[in-house]
Amino acid sequence: MQTAYTVLILLMLVSVSRLVGRMIPLPLPLVQICAGALLAWPTLGLHVALDPELFLFLFLPPLLFSDGWRMPKRDLWRLRGPILTLAVGLVLFTVVGAGYFIHWLLPSIPLPVAFALAAVLSPTDAVAVSAISQNRLPTPLMHMLQGEALMNDASGLVTFKFALAAAVTGVFSLANASLTFVLVAVGGLAVGVALSWLVGRLRSWMIARGWDDPATHVVFMLLLPFAAYVLAERLGASGILSAVAAGMMQSWLDLLPRQTSTRLLNRSVWSLLEFAFNGLIFLLLGLQLPDIIKAVVSHEASLWPTLFFRCLDVVAIFLVLLVLRFVWVQSIWRLSGLLRRWRGKGEMAQVPTARSCWLLTVGGVRGAVTLAGVLSVPMLMGGAPFPERDLLIFIAAGVILLSLIAACIALPLLLRGIEKSPDDKRRSEVRDAWRKTAEAAIHALEAEEANPQDAAQAALAAELKARIMSEYRHQLEVFNDSAEAQALAFQMDLLERRMRLKALRAQRLELYSLSRHHQIGDDVLREVLAELDLSEANLGQVK
């Protein structure tokens, strides 16, 4: 029962921290870390022992699957060059540069272990950056950070596992490691895509036979990232890349017919799961902080001097990571400009400035994946305690905290005076999509040939067809290219939505009254209330 109580307390804290985060000007991850640290204070003394392998298996697959699902694929492909240089090139650059620096700064950490630590410090967290910047980052930079976070989760953790294996076995060959890296990566991607495709075929087969219960299909989606991870690991491939590939593949397969209710439920469930898991990870970091600090200074005679010097080590490592990232971003952008001029393509459409370089540099916030990875370091190596495991966790936790604090301070300053320009291209695509779909609906209704049995049915069918077509013609007016027509149509649309919202709320109040007076049963209440809620959700945000 103690475990159940602990889980319930943590989930409650995740929700409360979200409310507290709205009242104080701090990013949610920092609030959750502080809440966890307060909960682990000796007066409260909540202690959570973590199994590293279980922690890695429980948290990483669904988070990576969700990132793959949400990532805009077209933007990912359009920015593939910069994203790949950040997600692969920068990871290797960081592993080598920061790895040698960590080994030089802390000789007690063996070089392969230092490489492993540098690798696990490479993945970034675009969700934390978005929360800190409040979506004010320029769209291309935000997409680059999102794509980098998606890809370097995989590349950083795969490199981390290779470095960890080299530390445990004491054997490392660059040629063999490079070949194995490619095979493991390609194998992981193939397993994720294949398994996701098979699940999609299974769902199509079920839907064709009328087995389209939304809860059943959502359970399949919840199990898919874990299945992809386990299967790939069993086959010797990368479970991390498998989970990412499964999520990216599933975002295409999510467009199955007769699955509207499933999609609505699926989005809600995954939003809840992502929020809860991200919050739990940062809460667990806060809960571990007292034990981490105690373990780091336990072998030293003096507490505060040792802790002070360890904190200086963390600051030095963080500054080196920052410098390496800035040097890489600047160098790649300059090299890209030289290559474009050499190939006769002229200057880049958007010339990078010093501010954009610093935004990309400071935007490399470390988060949940770094913590999950470092906590997966084994307790033992060859029967002996893993060298400096507590120090590794302390450094990783310190870098996460410093990167969050630095982003909280620097991003608002760098974004001062920058107004995020409206995405005119996206708006145009939205208008075109609504206009063309409305035209297709009108054409389909015009081509509909009713076959009524009598004149009364023919008149009724004609009236219904005219009513439905008028709604689609109203959509065409809303998305008319004329500014005056759009303004009038939007004004009418807003007024109509307000009226519909007022009517829906009156329906809901009457429904509650019927239930209170026992004129309808609970099953009828749930069914009608679900329809009213869906209708209100379809109205969108009404000001």
Q: What this model shows, in words?
A:
The chain has a two-stranded antiparallel sheet with strand order 1-2. The mean pLDDT is 79. It has helices spanning 2-23, 28-39, 52-70, 73-78, 80-105, 111-120, 126-133, 139-169, 174-208, 214-234, 239-253, 260-297, 304-342, 354-362, 368-375, 389-414, 424-447, 455-478, 483-516, 522-539, and strands spanning 380-381, 384-385. It is an all-alpha fold and 543 residues long. The chain folds into two domains: 48-414, Na+/H+ antiporter like fold (Up-down Bundle), CATH 1.20.1530.20; 425-539. Helices cover 78% and strands 1% of the residues.
Structure, briefly:
With 543 residues, this protein is mostly helical. The chain contains 20 helices and 2 strands.
Secondary structure layout plus pairing:
Elements (H helix, E strand, L loop, with lengths): L1 H22 L4 H12 L12 H19 L2 H6 L1 H26 L5 H10 L5 H8 L5 H31 L4 H35 L5 H21 L4 H15 L6 H38 L6 H39 L11 H9 L5 H8 L4 E2 L2 E2 L3 H26 L9 H24 L7 H24 L4 H34 L5 H18 L4
Antiparallel strand pairs: 1-2
Identify the notable features of this structure and list them briefly.
543 residues; Na+/H+ antiporter like fold; cell membrane; mainly alpha; 78% helix; globular; 2 domains; 20 helices; Cation/H_exchanger_TM
Mean pLDDT: 79
Low-confidence runs of at least 5 consecutive residues: none
How many helices? The count is 20
Secondary structure class reads mainly alpha
The CATH class of the largest domain turns out to be Mainly Alpha
Cα distance spanning the termini: 46 Å
Strand order across the biggest sheet?
1-2
| Beta-strand residue percentage | under 5%
* Rg on CA atoms, Å: 27 Å
Query: How would you sum up the global shape?
Result: globular
CATH architecture of the largest domain: Up-down Bundle
CATH fold category name of the largest domain: Na+/H+ antiporter like fold
Give the SSE order as H and E letters.
Answer: HHHHHHHHHHHHHHHEEHHHHH
Which percent range fits the helix content? Answer: over 70%
